[in-house]
């Protein structure tokens, strides 16, 4: 019998990865973890490939039990993480014994938590990725009682009695705020909004409950298009800030349709998109203008921090003789 | 030198603009729509075959090509330089034309399958029968694969005028629905929200989940819609669009 993770309480959880790359030419959005940074770090902390399948938990409580000893890492929004009732840290590897219960409750400030397991989990596959695509009706949304296949196990490695932390890996922890500052660069159609474009930076917006992986709707003082005329359908980047109608901004996220016919006022940066993946309904979002050079520097520094963590994990795992899984 | 949005055209009439830190867009600025379309799709093929590190998505449409990349793995300047080089190269010679395939797509028009047929006829000032005849009377060219789910975006039939979008979009359009809007026509491959008026529905399965890509058609292919009666639905139900060409 293969080893599994038995899900007791699924809430809103899916098996996820970094996305379905290279298929936008065929009309498929990239999808994948909305907070890419937290997802990458969770995998790296387990010695996995950054893009290995992991569990994305949105807003609601989650619990599960592995049928074998595992090493896991939980990142993303602050939450209460316990193993058999004992509080354990996020953003560090945590050893879990066969039969113990992992609980993630009280997700706060952000809305997405990532749970990765050393060796990763089994996942359905479509066009090179397990990322759910709601338009295709593809993906694995977990339900109470589900069993998720585990690809490998990991002997227990923390002290059985004293709970001395074995790991101090100093993962690059995302900062969480009740009010988000999201970096954007100028969009290709900024001039179509004339002087009203500046409104984007003047006052905060509120995340509407109709927000999801396709896009976030934000209420506030929206810029107005002053140009007229039809915009021919064309490719829109993830992160595009549009003003379709009414009093809402639409910020496209990873599940967005690849083409659209609205002018693009601004584009959220790569680091901004990961942060926006944590913004929940009712939270405030303030936009900050960045040049492309500044945006690229910020993103590279975030990725470099993950790469540096990778090296620390490798050394720690070698010292503790933890078998690192081979990339699939 | 770094470039910013709205830079001068290349020799080939292509302008490259930034679309955030992880994408750029090449726009064909010529006056001939057909040439612009051919240019951006040929440019897309060229970028695809270069296999540039870090580039993970390209979206060619009518007159624009969006190129998406990981800005930790490459950068604006590299992608722009390659785009410019390829665009200039293409600008000098004749544009390559892929062999077009032809798909015949059975459609039940009107009724529950095409609830907006009467209103479209009224808006266009012609009869429902004339709408069907125009829609099924000529080959329609696929211009690009778009949202949702790789839908084939076609030049619309020779209607007397553009077709207005629905005032209130539907929250769910059935797969196989045949829709028109403006001067465009489309088949909706998967259930999704939609604001385009529906003329009919095909019983064919549009996408093939086991194939890569899942879309059997390519830009440049042509579709001919063939009216069938509701009781012929079952003869085609569940068959793949992929086998309907020839």
Automatic annotation (TrEMBL), chain A:
<keyword id="KW-0547">Nucleotide-binding</keyword>
<dbReference type="InterPro" id="IPR052708">
    <property type="entry name" value="PxpC"/>
</dbReference>
<dbReference type="Pfam" id="PF02626">
    <property type="entry name" value="CT_A_B"/>
</dbReference>
<keyword id="KW-0378">Hydrolase</keyword>
<feature type="domain" description="Carboxyltransferase">
    <location>
        <begin position="25"/>
        <end position="305"/>
    </location>
</feature>
<dbReference type="GO" id="GO:0016787">
    <property type="term" value="F:hydrolase activity"/>
</dbReference>
<dbReference type="GO" id="GO:0016740">
    <property type="term" value="F:transferase activity"/>
</dbReference>
<protein>
    <submittedName>
        <fullName>Biotin-dependent carboxyltransferase family protein</fullName>
    </submittedName>
</protein>
<dbReference type="GO" id="GO:0005524">
    <property type="term" value="F:ATP binding"/>
</dbReference>
<dbReference type="InterPro" id="IPR029000">
    <property type="entry name" value="Cyclophilin-like_dom_sf"/>
</dbReference>
<dbReference type="InterPro" id="IPR003778">
    <property type="entry name" value="CT_A_B"/>
</dbReference>
<keyword id="KW-0808">Transferase</keyword>
<keyword id="KW-0067">ATP-binding</keyword>
TrEMBL record, chain B:
<keyword id="KW-0547">Nucleotide-binding</keyword>
<dbReference type="InterPro" id="IPR029000">
    <property type="entry name" value="Cyclophilin-like_dom_sf"/>
</dbReference>
<protein>
    <submittedName>
        <fullName>Allophanate hydrolase subunit 1</fullName>
    </submittedName>
</protein>
<dbReference type="InterPro" id="IPR010016">
    <property type="entry name" value="PxpB"/>
</dbReference>
<feature type="domain" description="Carboxyltransferase">
    <location>
        <begin position="14"/>
        <end position="217"/>
    </location>
</feature>
<keyword id="KW-0378">Hydrolase</keyword>
<dbReference type="GO" id="GO:0005524">
    <property type="term" value="F:ATP binding"/>
</dbReference>
<dbReference type="Pfam" id="PF02682">
    <property type="entry name" value="CT_C_D"/>
</dbReference>
<dbReference type="GO" id="GO:0016787">
    <property type="term" value="F:hydrolase activity"/>
</dbReference>
<keyword id="KW-0067">ATP-binding</keyword>
<dbReference type="InterPro" id="IPR003833">
    <property type="entry name" value="CT_C_D"/>
</dbReference>
């Amino acid at each position: 019998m293969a080893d599994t993770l038995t899900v007791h309480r699924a809430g809103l959880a899916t098996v996820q990865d970094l996305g379905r790359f290279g298929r936008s030419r065929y009309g498929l959005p990239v999808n994948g973890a909305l907070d890419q940074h937290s997802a990458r770090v969770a995998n790296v902390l387990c010695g996995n490939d950054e893009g290995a399948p992991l569990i994305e938990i949105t807003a609601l409580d989650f619990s599960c039990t592995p049928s074998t000893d595992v090493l896991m890492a939980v990142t993303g929004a602050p939450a209460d993480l316990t193993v058999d009732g004992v509080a354990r840290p996020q953003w560090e590897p945590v050893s879990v014994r066969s039969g113990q219960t992992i609980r993630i409750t009280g997700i706060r400030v952000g809305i997405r938590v990532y749970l990765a397991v050393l060796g990763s989990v089994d996942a359905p596959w479509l066009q090179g990725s397990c990322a759910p695509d709601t338009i295709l009706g593809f993906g694995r949304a977990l339900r109470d009682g589900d069993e998720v296949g585990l690809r490998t196990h990991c002997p227990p490695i923390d002290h059985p009695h004293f709970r001395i932390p074995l790991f101090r890996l100093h993962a690059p922890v995302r900062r969480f705020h009740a009010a988000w500052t999201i970096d954007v660069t100028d969009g290709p159609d900024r001039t179509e909004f004339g002087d009203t474009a500046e409104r984007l930076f003047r006052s905060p917006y509120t995340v509407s409950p109709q927000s999801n992986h396709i896009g976030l709707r934000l209420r506030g003082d929206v810029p107005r298009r002053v140009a007229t005329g039809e915009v021919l359908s064309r490719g829109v980047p993830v992160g595009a800030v549009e003003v379709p109608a009414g009093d809402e901004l639409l910020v496209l996220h990873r599940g967005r349709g690849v083409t659209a016919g609205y002018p693009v006022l601004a584009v959220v940066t790569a680091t901004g998109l990961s942060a926006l993946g944590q913004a929940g309904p009712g939270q405030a979002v303030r936009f900050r203008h960045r040049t492309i050079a500044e945006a690229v520097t910020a993103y590279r520094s975030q990725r470099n921090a993950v790469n540096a963590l990778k090296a620390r994990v490798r050394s720690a795992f070698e010292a503790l003789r933890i078998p690192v899984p081979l990339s699939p | 030198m770094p470039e910013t949005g709205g830079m001068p055209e290349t020799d080939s009439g292509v302008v490259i603009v930034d679309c955030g830190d992880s994408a750029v867009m090449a726009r064909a600025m010529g006056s001939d729509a057909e040439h612009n379309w051919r240019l951006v799709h040929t440019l897309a093929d060229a970028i695809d075959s270069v296999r540039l590190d870090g580039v993970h998505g390209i979206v060619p449409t009518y007159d624009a090509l969006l190129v998406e990349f990981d800005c930790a793995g490459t950068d604006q300047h590299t992608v722009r330089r390659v785009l410019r080089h390829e665009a200039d190269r293409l600008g000098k010679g004749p544009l390559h034309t892929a062999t077009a395939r032809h798909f015949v797509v059975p459609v039940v028009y009107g009724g529950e399958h095409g609830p907006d047929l009467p209103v479209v006829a009224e808006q266009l000032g012609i009869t429902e029968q004339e709408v069907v005849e125009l829609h099924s009377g000529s080959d329609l060219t696929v211009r690009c694969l778009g949202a949702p789910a790789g839908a084939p975006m076609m030049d619309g039939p020779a209607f007397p005028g553009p077709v207005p979008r629905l005032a209130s979009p539907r929250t769910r359009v059935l797969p196989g629905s045949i829709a028109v809007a403006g001067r465009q026509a489309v088949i909706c491959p998967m259930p999704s929200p939609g604001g385009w008026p529906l003329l009919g529905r095909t019983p064919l399965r549009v996408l093939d989940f086991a194939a890569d890509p899942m879309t059997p058609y390519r830009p440049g292919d042509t579709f001919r819609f063939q009216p069938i009666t509701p009781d012929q639905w079952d003869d085609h139900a569940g068959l793949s669009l992929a086998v309907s060409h020839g």
